[in-house]
């Protein structure tokens, strides 16, 4: 089950979601332990390192933890609702923008300053708190770094070395946000002229792109000019469908992309390079019921 990242929102169309925390108890009596089953998925939804969220929970509960078979366990018996409240406290402190409440933020550490930069409104603020997690971040600044889609793989020949220095998906997402605001319908021209950035832009912005009709209208021109960009879009779509368990909703999602026609779906004639074989078959079988792409 997905729940809003902003616990105070009343917007029925709020698109920023995370998995609801799932716990299970192991052991009996004094040896009982609470397993946080999907803490990794929650961390990914928040775009924060799992170890950072884990440490915050440990500080809040003042307990020890242990790992077994890659599972994160707390010593003691804790209700899922109690830990879910702690997750929301973490969001309020180290995820959500204080100006616009948007969770699309990036953490930064400079000396003793821990800051949040918002991709939505551009606000940058220093996090002021006496919580123990702040000293943990200052001593371990690497926990503030989060790579949502991994390192950029440049597929284009003839790209200048100085352009290859662009290394962060977050930079591209921030750039895409600025460009969409300033150029709007001219974005496709900008996009095509910045080859080193183009795949990074789609990767970094995909989760918001798929839910944003306005962005999709702009990107339609990009897809018509750049076949490789459309391929990358479909790759990210496959990952999105699998990670969010939305394969059954594929028809609804495709209906929201009216600019795609039969020829565009030739991508699905080939085996997937980004999801496992079982998921790939499910996606393609579902698509068969939507459009005859053979």
UniProtKB/TrEMBL annotation:
The keyword DNA-binding does not apply. It comes from the Eukaryota. InterPro entries: IF2/IF5, Transl_init_fac_IF2/IF5_dom, Transl_init_fac_IF2/IF5_N, Transl_init_fac_IF2/IF5_Zn-bd. SMART domains: eIF2B_5 (SM00653). GO terms for cellular component: cytosol. The keyword Protein biosynthesis applies. Coiled coil: none annotated. Keywords: GTP-binding, Initiation factor, Nucleotide-binding, Protein biosynthesis. Belongs to the eIF-2-beta/eIF-5 family. This is Translation initiation factor IF2/IF5 domain-containing protein. It comes from Vavraia culicis (isolate floridensis) (Microsporidian parasite). The lineage of its organism: Eukaryota, Fungi, Fungi incertae sedis, Microsporidia, Pleistophoridae.
